[in-house]
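Data card: per-record layout.
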Amino acid sequence: MLLKFLFKPRDPQFALGDDIKLRYLGPADAEAFRTHIHDLHFEDFRDRFNGLVSDYWLDKYIARSLNEAIVIGAFADDHLVAVAELHTGGGIESGQGESAFSVASDWRHKGLGTILLKVLLRAASENDVSTIIVETGAQNQAMKALARRFGAKMQFAGEQSIGRINVADGLRLAARKLENRNFPAPPFVVDEAPSIARVLI
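The structure for this 201-residue chain is written out next.
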């Protein structure tokens, strides 16, 4: 059985060891998402939004994302510590999706961004998205390095850096990195209940 991200189950969940759990976010998670964003340190907030934004703008953005995009949250216990988003439609070309990532300041450099990008690649593949667009500020070295790790070639566009990840190539790179570490490729293992899945990364 293939888990289709497009048709979101009521409460899909993913487990990464005993410490971090991933699940889809929906409109009911708006407050947790908002708290996560507000908890970012100044530099991390700036990197996420390429500058400063008002609370009004942020609330509109969160509502739109949770209603229209694929949004995956990483939780430590009940605390939202990282979010990955995949936006399609609107002015985005068919077959492409724009990504966005935020990782709590105290959880950076622990591999969460890599984990979320792998899951987002699988989500893109399941939804006929062949290219993930990564757009970030020129100063966001961590995001640029993460994108390059999965095949993106970053280019400057004004004060922004823009890269494109070929989803099929990104998934192959993810599998190869795991094989080189003597781990199997990251399968989706679906439990008996069709709405529950685990991703082993």
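Known properties of this structure: Residues 53 and 147 are 24 Å apart (CA to CA). Helices lie at 30-39, 42-49, 55-68, 112-126, 141-149, 167-180.

See the next section for split statistics.
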